[in-house]
Amino acid sequence: MAIELKMPALSPTMEEGKLARWLVKEGDEVTSGDIIAEIETDKATMEFEAVDEGTVGKLLVAEGTDGVKVGTVIAVLAGEGEDASTVSAAAPKAEAAPAAGAAAARPEAPAPVAKKDTEVPYGTNMKTSTVREALRDAMAEEMRRDDRVFVMGEEVAEYQGAYKVTQGLLEEFGPRRVIDTPITEYGFAGIGTGAAMGGLRPVIEFMTFNFAMQAIDHIINSAAKTNYMSGGQMRCPVVFRGPNGAAARVGAQHSQNYGPWYANVPGLVVIAPYDASDAKGLLKAAIRSEDPVVFLENELVYGRTFELPELDDHVLPIGKARIMREGKDVTIVSYSIGVGLALEAAEQLAGEGIDAEVIDLRTLRPLDKETVLASLAKTNRMVVAEEGFPVCSIASEIIAICMEDGFDDLDAPVVRVCNEDVPLPYAANLEKLALIDTPRIVEAVRKVCYR
Amino acid sequence: MPKAKSDAGSGAEPAAVVPAQDEDFALRSLQEALEADKRYKPSKEELLHFYEQMLLIRRFEERAGQLYGLGLIGGFCHLYIGQEAVAVGLQSALDGERDSVITGYRDHGHMLAYGIDPKVIMAELTGRAAGISRGKGGSMHMFSVEHKFYGGHGIVGAQVSLGAGLAFAHKYREDGGVAMAYFGDGAANQGQVYESFNMAALWKLPIIFVIENNGYAMGTAVKRGSAETHFYRRGTAFRIPGMQVDGMDVLEVRKAAEVALEYVRAGNGPVLMELNTYRYRGHSMSDPAKYRSREEVQDVREKRDPIDHAKNELIAMGVDEAALKDIDKRVRAAVAESADFAENSPEPEAAELYTDVLVERY
User: Which Gene3D superfamilies match (chain A) (predicted)?
Assistant: First the structure.
């Protein structure tokens, strides 16, 4: 059968080109790999190779022809046993690639699932625990429950954790499951991600999320995207965890909140708890999740003591915000260390006769819009308090959500209270000036309440 | 010449220096084992099978190039033409039940070497619902968890750390599997490769690092981009033994794989193999390949072509031309069928846009 040679697209964007030169003539024998023509695109001159074997029949487009559309038959090749002089091009067919579905209706994104009640059962005994211990207990419980779970990172084993979060794990689980790595974030984040692809449940600790910048390629390109790119074949149930955000006097490179960075990426779950109960319940949920999770802790909160329910298996739902304090006049939305500041602010505002509701987002992706919007519908005023840069922040996202889906409920513009838009300075006075604090939240609330 | 220190305590009998105590010996030992007996001795049927697989890759890739030219395949498309003996030779030595494989974006050949249906591979290239990634991955992102083939990765070098993770999982589970991570001479200069070498050697992970050295990192010739162009030596700093293999000879590749696998399966840690090969086509479809001469390409095609090489060997074994013609016909038919399927099967449903972002719903 005669083979039609068509004007090739030589780049992703090429639509037409110039047939600069024929390197064969009618009657020539060609085999796969022979250069038969030179084609000029707007970027380069490319060689056009024969793919099939045969004899060149007709050359249908003369050399030097400009503007030859991709897909145009430019020559025909006679196959084995055919007479090259008699073959000609079949009737031209429409060569258009399949319609790109431009007219297709946009599908609806699936609605989020109804969230389970997050309340701890009434009458549960409470004990006190630091966030540090709660995180350790979460990992230990999950490691007892599932042999696939292991912890890997810098100084997690013999040193007991740079911030002592993995204290005692080596003793209980041994070096097979509690693994010290060299200081090579990119490499061990990749190894953890690959181990998850291979069927394990890695918990990868970054000494701080500032160092995870060395590894962010694996978190985003390898962990977050593979399930989608593989059409759901390849899961990646890895947890990346460690302290995030500003600590104290450690300078600009050790003080950033990466919540907004990770929350920007579809395919990731991003959790940033505040208190011990959420730290434990959500870390357990993260380890059990089939999806890659970025779990953002806060160094300044590790040592704080909170109530923790005494339950055999304290697992909380991912993607559900928590109302930390009910109120009717204004809503303060926050997460991580900001929640403590928001609660302090609410306390102070109560003395001024302003009844503030405080919402802890807990999960930054997927974000619990429903809880935020329900609270806005109740109070009609909102402040977002975030320990982090203001630009393209979680606060920005909350404000956008209120504009898009809660506009009619707004009695005042939503205001954000974030860190100053500068790298975090070292000097004690400057650091204090740069970071979010309770007075700033109080002031913003007064503003949206027109007080 | 300084003597290597023995690991034995000071109280040990002073022994004659044997090669095993030479610190450099381990790094060369596998190369020496390969040199001693370089080529796998296949049965006629085995070599026919290798030939057919290589030919399938060649014809499939040529057709993919054609479909790209017709606008049916978009974006980036990196062809494996010229490198066929590498994937076929190496993967033929693996234990499909246990061993895992991962590679970069030039991945069609590795998929075909597993015997995965060319139709679902071609349909992925054309972005159709029947593609192996349901049309959501494309040329660079193909996976078959069923075959323990873990992709299909687009960030140069990422598959090396990920492959070390697969090896970590084999060791953790004690399942006896070995991971094989393919990467190119370009990726061999990435930092994470060396982080992974270090941890793989430190923890004795069961992994074979495979550098497919095709001479060019995109358009940069090896000698313009690499201080050490003998890539098999790149593991020396981590005490990883290296092997240099003719990647255009499927039988040498197969034999080298066996030598490496025996070493790795015995729990000795990683091996680094450099396979010297050549890609006939550009880096991707939009590469005018002005960085090398036409003569250079033609010379390799004429003198080192892995398929011609196997064909001549088959003829020497007494296989007649008619049998080879039959294979050729069969392969062409399979490729034509895959192209028809890929062209005519439907695009993904619009609702697929939102599936597989996350596994669970929250």
Answer: 2.40.50.100, 3.40.50.920, 3.40.50.970
